[in-house]
Structure formats: C-alpha cells, structure tokens
Specification:
The protein is an alpha/beta fold. The chain is built from eleven helices and eleven strands. Helix 3 runs parallel beside helix 4.
C-alpha cells in the first residue's frame, strides 16, 4: 500500500513540475487573438499564460520597475528598444511578430469615407466633438497617430480638439460609446465593431507598426521562450491573420 501511495505522490509531483504558469505583458491591441492563442498553447503544452494588457509604455515602465513578467509583447519597437538598452530583455529571443495599419473611425456606421491629405478639415468633420486618440506622447497608437497627422500637416490644426485615452482599447470605447465622433485606432481594433472605418492612413505617414516580443531578462522559466515560439506556429499565425494582423516571417 505504501508503495502505491508513494508512486501516486511521485506521479502528482511529476505532473505539477511539468505544468508552468508564465506572466505575459502585452499591448492592449493584442487582446482577443492573443487570449485565443494562449488557450491553444495551454491545450498543447499544459502550461498557462496569464496575460496583463495595457499601453506598451506603461507595461515597459513596470518591467523597468522590476514587475514580475516573463514575456513582453509591445505595439512599437521604441519601448522594446528602451528595455534592450537597459538589458531588461533577452536579446536573442526578440522577434517582430505582427504588423498593423492605422485607421480613422467614426461612431456613425454610415459615415462617409474621408480623404486624408493636407486639405482635410478634421475640425469641420468633428463638428464640435473630439478626436479620440491614445496618449500621443507615450502609447504607440497615439504616437503613430500624432506622427501621421503631423506628416499630413493636420496635427497643429486639430490638436486642441483631441481627447486622449490611456490605450487604444479605451480610445475605441470613446468612439463606440459616442463620446467622440471620430478616433484613430489600429485596423484590427475596428474590425467587427459597430463603427465605420472612414480612412486608412498612408503607410508613408508614420513608422511601420510592428509588434516585437521578447523574454524578460529576469525570467527563469524556459516556458517563456516556448510561448514566443508558439506565436510563430501556423496555428497562431492563422488566429492573428483572421483578426486582421499582418503576420511577419
């Protein structure tokens, strides 16, 4: 009897050591497909990824302050670069996983298309309302948006009528709720929502929108790198492609 009890305890111990829980810090715009991929990874490996979403800037600063994260997936290269400069990521695990596009959306699903150039009168379009954007000095979606508007010669004209939100999901909520008639988000955020995508910003108006991921330097869990490797699989690629992301080689 003692033999069987011991064997059972050893089996339970082996099972416990095989499963692991990692913490992933990820850009808010990845929520949805990344949750789905994390579930697929759990089914395939038995390991669990607990994902904390937010603005890439806020997440990067938390990692700088020694927050216990194993993986970071950013919506922009600059915040990953800052962590790399501080030797806070494992450089050999860094990879650009996805791309995205920047769009102008309207609360009214029947809103007319908009031509974006230096003659566009965004203030007339807003008609006294606000243009919703993520924080333009720190959150990637807001930074890309400000860069694009500046490139088109529109930022100085409309900046006084911009309503800034903590991340791109909060920006979308301002538009879907009607608090802001228009907003700037990623194409993937607008997909499937009850809003109108009235314009796509020219790719030449802003830096390429890339999502780099890496293992955090303080992580001791080999499952962290395994999770990033899973993001490169055809199964994960299909999930992100279906959500509207550009899957990078």
């Amino acid at each position: 009897m003692r033999h069987y009890i011991l064997a059972g305890l050893l089996a339970l111990s082996a099972t416990a050591t095989q499963a692991a829980d990692i913490t992933v810090f990820a850009a808010a715009s990845l929520k949805g497909p990344l949750d789905q991929v994390a579930e697929a990874w759990k089914a395939a490996s038995g390991n669990t990824a607990t994902i904390s979403y937010g603005g890439s800037s806020a997440l990067a600063k938390q990692i700088q302050e020694a927050a216990p994260a194993d993986v970071f997936v950013s919506a922009a290269e600059n915040w990953m670069d800052k962590l790399a400069e501080g030797k806070l990521i494992k450089d050999d695990t860094r990879h650009d996983f996805f791309g995205n596009t920047l769009v102008l959306i309207a609360h009214d699903p029947k809103a007319a298309p908009v031509t974006l150039d230096d003659k566009t009168d965004l203030n007339a379009l807003l008609a006294g309302g606000k243009l919703a954007m993520a924080l333009v000095d720190s959150v990637p979606a807001g930074q890309y948006g400000k860069e694009a508007l500046t490139s088109l010669g529109l930022w100085d004209k409309v900046s006084a009528n911009v309503a800034q939100a903590e991340d791109v999901k909060a920006t979308l909520k301002l538009v879907t709720s009607g608090e802001a008639p228009y907003g700037i988000v990623y194409a993937t955020d607008a997909k499937g929502k009850d809003v109108a995508t009235v314009a796509t910003f020219p790719e030449t108006s802003h830096k390429p929108i890339l999502y780099p991921g890496a293992v955090v330097a303080s992580s001791t869990k080999p499952e962290a790198a395994a999770f990033l490797d899973f993001l490169k699989t055809p199964e994960a690629a299909k999930v992100f492609a279906d959500a509207g992301f550009q899957v990078l080689p």
